[in-house]
Input
Amino acid sequence: MSTTTTVPGGDRAVRPPTAPLVRLDHVSKHFTTKGAGLFSRRTLTAVDDVSLDLPPAHTFALVGESGSGKSTLGRLALRLTEPSSGRVHFEGRDLTAMSPRQLRRTRQQMQVVFQDPLGSLDPRMSVADIVAEPLRVHRGLRGSELDDRVAALFEQVGLDTSRMRQRPKALSGGQRQRVGIARAIALEPRLLLADEAVSALDVSVQAQITNLLAELRERLGLTYLFIAHGLPVVRQIADTVGVMYLGRVVEQGPVDEIFSAPAHPYTKALISAQPVADPTYRRERVLLQGEIPSATAIPSGCRFRTRCPIATATCAEVAPPRLVSSTGHVVECHYPLEEVVA
Amino acid sequence: MSIGSSPTTEPPALAAASHEEAPTRETLLALDGMTVTFRTPAGDRLPLVREASFQVRSGEIVCLVGESGSGKSVTARTVMGLTQRDPAMAVGGRAEVLGHDIVSDPSVTAGLRGRDLAMVFQEPMSSLDPVCTVGTQLTEALRRRHGKASRQAERSRLAELLAEVGIVDGRRVLDTYPHQLSGGMCQRVMIAQALACAPRLLIADEPTTALDVTIQAQILELVDRLRTEEQMAVLLVTHDMAVAAELADRVVVMYAGRVVEDAAPVALFDQQLHPYTSGLLRCIPPMVDERPARLVTIPGGVPSPAALPTGCSFHPRCPHSVDLCADRVPELADHGGRRSACWRAEELSR
Ligand SMILES: Nc1ncnc2c1ncn2[C@@H]1O[C@H](COP(=O)(O)OP(=O)(O)OP(=O)(O)O)[C@@H](O)[C@H]1O
Ligand SMILES: Nc1ncnc2c1ncn2[C@@H]1O[C@H](COP(=O)(O)OP(=O)(O)OP(=O)(O)O)[C@@H](O)[C@H]1O
Ligand code: SF4
Ligand SMILES: [Mg+2]
Ligand SMILES: [Mg+2]
Output
């Protein structure tokens, strides 16, 4: 097939055309947690040997149940968390081997927008100062030059400049999220990690912010690592979707393939559990039993087999192969639901 | 006239409800012009709920939807007799719960709670006691309805109940304290607690919002089954139109403290008689249909009760507003088995 395909709703490149902006190379993260006893320690595997590429000007979304490792993987990609093993490359350079100084400089290229704008914005600062801070600290901007740049950022994220002197608390949730985004794009980063950035917003505000993110991506050539619980918003904004389960990306591929032809039984169950805003819509629902197991006791073989509706004895014994198709669709399953050529 | 409790024949406003083969249903919750006002320390009276009117009957799930701050939780908590504990709150109009007038005597709800009436709260933890094990609390809920049984029988019934809300190692969880559990786990224990007493009327405020969709699907399936098999009546508060589409017999849409539209889901999703409902539906990204390049949005945000616009509260955001909309408040009027509070509902339905 050709290297790029157009999808309905915009011409987004499906295949990475150039070198990746971020490359995760066999990255793992373990945490040590307290066990039941006084001195007992247990190892928790939050991210388990993940390799993936984020192409530039592309939106890569991570979905999966709570505790599956999405935030940890996002933080690893920006080296906000030290990997236990593996390497992280940004623009071809090894982040894990950088000096603190180099890392600080490179970090300006990578910014984060969190779920709770109020929790991540300093309550005592005016929203203009919040947006100005990185420009003062890293770019040394002062006076009218700084004011002009801040005003331009307000305009870019659709914030009324009459609000510049207000504190975060005086703003609505959507307005605060716009402040968070303005601050994040102030230093013209290449990569934006959006960790549940639209999840807590009302649907009408969520639509506004989702549109804003799509617009900024086009205008500024941003790359997004977009983490969200809500599948509809992921379907709207993502080019590529990675589905996490117990620390691994068990399926990954172009957004339309993932939603219309999921190959992993977990992806299929996740999508079928999502309510659809159409009372006449009928679907075959795969109800999963129970919940995601503890990350301190990952099941043998295929980690999904304890809840998988089609698991066999093989699944308990042998780790599933990693199958990769020509469209970049990756699935880790002994019995993929859709044909994926190894 | 009594507005609730007695077995009723199908009132015209409810004739279009989806369970047509249904036997005579009992009205278990009936609001008629219920109003809740909050008096600020400065002495201003803020209308949090304005003339809410709707009913919930046995075997029926009514979804109360709307964006943050629209008054859904205040409505639910008032029905439970909880808002009234705050001396700054005043409740007016008419409201009957299981045949009892809760406006003149909110204390009757205390005797109903945990038996015929149960609630799941929006905030996890708020109905769990931090110093008692999960097992102790659930046993108490179970006994309130079924009386005492053998410890063995009680524990296995509770483990079953926990399994139904997606907790597989229920027996272990029975021996834990709430703080040892994750937020999502507490939420599910709360749901199990509410269902342990087999209520006739369940008030559930965003019961699954904090949960994964996989767990949400399990719980909604359980609620659906109890509605069908036990004729449980449910007032389900949610901001998620998709949940309402899947589960509701009727959908009641609130905006700025008022009910603005009320209809059966198939009719409502097919055609909206209020521009706010249309806006809410159109800004949801589609799960099945083709993606739009940009989502439709509603400009602005929900007004605060301290600064309500004149006339129709939605008029500053409404694409269809005319001069009349800013001047006079539209009544919640009947439109052939469904209701809308919009001056232009007739025109919009054409
Ligand atoms: N600092 C930490 N110390 C110990 N364990 C941690 C830490 N951070 C994360 N974990 C554990 O790692 C696993 C993955 O967590 P993570 O927050 O990455 O999941 P998530 O997919 O983002 O979940 P959610 O959807 O709830 O945000 C979980 O089991 C979590 O408890
Ligand atoms: N105890 C209270 N005192 C004063 N105002 C209150 C109180 N509880 C709620 N309000 C106000 O009443 C309005 C309605 O609030 P309510 O909690 O019912 O909204 P909601 O529809 O449940 O929203 P959400 O989706 O965010 O839960 C809001 O403006 C809120 O600030
Ligand atoms: S009454 Fe007027 S402003 Fe209100 S929803 Fe109807 S058309 Fe819009
Ligand atoms: Mg997370
Ligand atoms: Mg609420």
